[in-house]
Amino acid sequence: MTLVQPKVPPGLYDADFYAWTQRQAQLIRERRLGDVDWENLAEEIESVGRSEKAEIRSRLAVLLQHLLKWQFQPEQRSHSWQSSISEQRIHIAGLIEDSPSLRRYPAEVLARCYGQALRRAASDTDLPASSFPEPCPYTVEQVLDDAFLPGRPWTAGGLLRD
Question: Helix, strand or coil for residue 145?
Fold first, then answer.
């Protein structure tokens, strides 16, 4: 099957991306498939998938960074650290809920994200990177578990106000 060249206003994809997306959606809804800009549409769909993975990696690295800080600087534990840990877990769970095929992805990238998190935690805490364990001391199940916080026990009253 040969696709007909799309009848898209020249340069619309580059000149006004939002207008291009709305035009493509309209063409698909109207079943005017011969007018769809298939090449750019395929690239954009792939890009959405890549951005979902990038979002998981980014949030996982922040989550690991704060788990390390929580464990290795317990005297600095704060509400903002606790909030960040919770927020990252909620967002990762939401991404996976929306795209169940990404359920295994956090486990696939845990080691890579941990390396980033370790460097950030070392910078944030002024502790040498060698103060943190290598490889990642947490399982992906622990990292994503709302009830898991590493290190010595804590109470909400013992957190620093920030």
Answer: coil
